[in-house]
Amino acid sequence: MGVKETKTDLLQGTLDLLVLKALALGPLHGLGVSTRIEQITKGTFQVKPGSLFPALHRMEEAGWLQSSWGESENNRRAKYYRLSRAGQRQLETETQEWKRIAVAIASALRAT
Amino acid sequence: MPLLSRAFSFWRNLSRKAQVDQELDEELRSYVEMLTDEKVQRGMRAEEARRSSLIEVGGIEQVKEQVREVRIGATMATFLRDVRYGARSLARSPGFTAVALLTLALGIGANTAIFSVVNAVLLRPLPFPGSGELVVVRDENGKTGETFPSVSPADFFDWKSQSRSFASLAAYSGWSVTLLDSDRPEMIPATRVTDEFFNTLRVQPLLGRTFRSDEFKADGNVVILSYRLWQRRFGGDPNVVGKTLAVEGGDITVVGVMPPEFKLPATAEAWTPVAQDSGEMHLRAARYFETVARLKPNVAPSQAEAEMRTIAARLASQYPESDSNWSVLIEPLRETLVGDVRPALLILFGAVGLVLLIACGNVANLVLARATTRHKELAIRASLGASRWHITRQLITESLMLTCTGGALGALLAQWCVGAIVWLVPKGLRFPRIEEAHVDTAVLGFTFAVALLAGAVLGLITGMKASRADLHESLKEGGRSATAGWRVQRARGAMVVAEIALTLVLLAGAGLLIKSLMRLQHVELGFNPEKLLAVPVGASMSKYAQPESRAAYFERLAAQVQAEPGVQSVATASCPPMMYTMYFPFAIEGRANPNEVPQAWYNAVSPNYFSLMGIGLLEGREFTDHDRAGASNAAVINETMRRRYFAGEDPVGKHLTVNYLNTPMSLEVVGVVKDIKQESLAAQANAQIYVSYLQVPWFSTTLIIRTENDPGALIPSVQRAISSVDPTQAGSGAKTMEQLLSDSAAQPRFYSLLLGVFAALALLLAAVGIYGVISYAVAQRTHEIGVRMALGAQRRDVLKLVIGQGMILVLAGTIIGLGAAFALTRVMKSLLYEVGATDPATFVGVTALLALVALLACLLPARRATKVDPIMVLRHE
């Protein structure tokens, strides 16, 4: 299953971007978010609860996420998160930002 | 997220910590359960799956702690970021910040100071347990409508035995005790109280006990000291209870000391029991007992009043010669104590509120001016993704920082101001509870609320402006948005109009008070107050029980003082003007009408009183040395009495019957003198009867001394002279007439001073406001002015242009302000003396003053405008 390296010290912006991206596809509960991130990064990032939950709550506090209680697929009560409009805007901004950085880093690496 | 909902979330996180924690618990539990489910599906055994899930989650408590930190931290971080940004932005314009802070500190400080007085005098409960049930029962004359603070002893005891509405009913009456326990006798203002006085008020003594029921008789001989007297005279001696004090007329034993906050009546230094078995308790026509009563629970004041009116009607038919036309009024004790000063305090409070509005207007003006220059900064922030709320929140944070800092400075300023205000109130003046005024937590709470409110208003005004003007527009135009600038300018103009209007209201109020004070100080006194000294002296009831011996004693006193160097002449009066008044009922012989019991001021004077005081004789004669015991009783009346009761007749030769301490006393009118200001500078003259003290001496008298030089300097030698006649007598409480007159005008002077200061502050702020707006307009129009001058406009035209712009604002503000002043000064009516509430001269005067100051404020920027060099302006283009 690819690189099994746990990156808890991810750049904060990276984790936010991944969470926003994961939720862009639809509402998820905590475990769903970490599973989705694992899927979309093809297993590169595994987000542990210790960084996942503070991030979710921080982003909710910032108004990017909204939460509500619902039933899971196995009939368990779970807290679901979804993107707010501000969250969608934030996702766009951060995506642009990330692309800019990625291009810059790539060109920096080419230059050497 | 909007500021409010963020603040709410912050508060929720703090206050509903338990619930947030519980939700978090549940969220983490469901995470672990779902992870376990997943592992089981993948083929793990249930128990092992659960164990590995828990390991994977790590410390649940740790996760929770981290989440908690994030939740509170995010809110705090945003707030701190706004504050930091605000602080940087304010520090970048120190001039703006300093002026805004100073303005706010003045406005909020003045409000805090006045509020601490209002709080102490009007809001804080009286220092008696259950003070809401305490009422004062007082006499009301149904015919003249005048209310009397007091009741006669006989009526009081009838009220007490017949009424059912009160848990207890007590009376008290002022007198004095002369302490003889040191070299110099001292006269102490004391209060005689009836048996239920202390338990009605439910006060416990600090030391010792209150009076026992068997002490309310002639030989009670006990005293309770005030805290003040205990400290001053006895150095706070803890063993003072049980001590016997030598006083004039015998010894008395100290049985208790009252706590410092117990001040009823305000002047009392000591309390003694009323001799409830004495003949005095049968006096019915002399009203000098003040009352205080505690209503039974569930009895409304109106019910008690209804009952008391029935009792009063019964007494009136039973004793028509003293009680007809007298009814009863019940009012809360608080009303009696502070009712007099409430209107004035509320007016001052309102006035200082207007000053704060003007201060806010000025700061808003500054903030708006700054907003125009900050337009670009805000536009850049907006284009970088800051939402409208983000920017408004930032502006509100900055405003709150300004007003809260201004408020803190204001609170410091108020601390000092309250001291100054309390100091300004002349000592011994009837201004209840003011010495309790200080800046406490309640006052600071008020200050904080005012600061928050001012900050929110400021922030909203500026925020509205900033978001309404299209911020992107200003970027496109390179930061010079003409329309937005014009809109802001119009808003600033409106603010100046409002400031002018408010200032005019304050100026009108202050002008009216000052004019009324001037009227009061130049009022026709009816006597010559120059170089007069008044020294009250008592006469021992044991030594001078007989009227003749009393008269002889007073005569000796006057002669002894007359011999002192520096004394020109000496007269005596039981009631010198501005010091005391005494009322007695009287009737005109041959015109008896039991349904009408008129009252007149009564004054026992020496024969030379009128000539010494310079009171003019209108007809008949003054008293002579022959008007003494043995001769037929003579009376001199004043012109008000002649006008009221002897219209079209000659009063000289007519006979009066005065109800003198329950005994009818017949007097023949021998003369009529001019009215004088007897009670106070403001009070109208009443009917007055003078008698000769040689004939009917009162129990005490006041030496009235005309001196050759400064009367105050003579006090010690006069006191020595008094002691030399009788070493057990004191001449305490000496005052010069100048002092007495000044005390009589002290309250109006105090109000005029405060309102005058507020009006001056308002005027200054308004002038600064106009100056700011016009300066800014001139700066904006520099180009236009340059062009006009290039096209041939003269300096005069430019001056006219700029001043015209300012004066239009002033005119609009003046019109609105005059309207408001006409409507508002009416509330001041009770504070004015012989000045109408809409006195035209005052209104014209203050309008002219305001216009003049406004003109000066416009003139400075206008002169700057004329200095514009057209060549420079055009070249710059």
Would you write up a description of this structure?
The complex is a heterodimer of chains A (112) and B (877). Chain A has 112 residues and is of the alpha+beta class. Chain A has one domain (12-111): Arc Repressor Mutant, subunit A, CATH 1.10.10. Chain A has 4 helices and 3 strands; from the N terminus they run H-E-H-H-E-E-H. Chain A is globular. With 877 residues, chain B is of the alpha+beta class. Among the domains of chain B are: 3-82, no CATH class; 144-324, no CATH class; 532-708, no CATH class. Chain B is 54% helix and 15% strand. Chain B has 26 helices and 22 strands. In chain B, strands 1, 2, 3, 4, 5, 6, 7, 8, 9, 10 and 11 form an 11-stranded mixed β-sheet that branches. Chain B has a 6-stranded mixed β-barrel with strand order 14-15-20-17-19-18. In chain B, strands 13-21-12-22 form a 4-stranded antiparallel β-sheet. The A-B interface holds A 29-31, 48-50, 53-55, 57-58, 61-63, 72, 74, 76-79, 86, 93 and B 1, 9, 23-24, 26-28, 30-31, 33-35, 37-38, 56-58, 62-63, 66-67, 69-71, 73-75, 385.
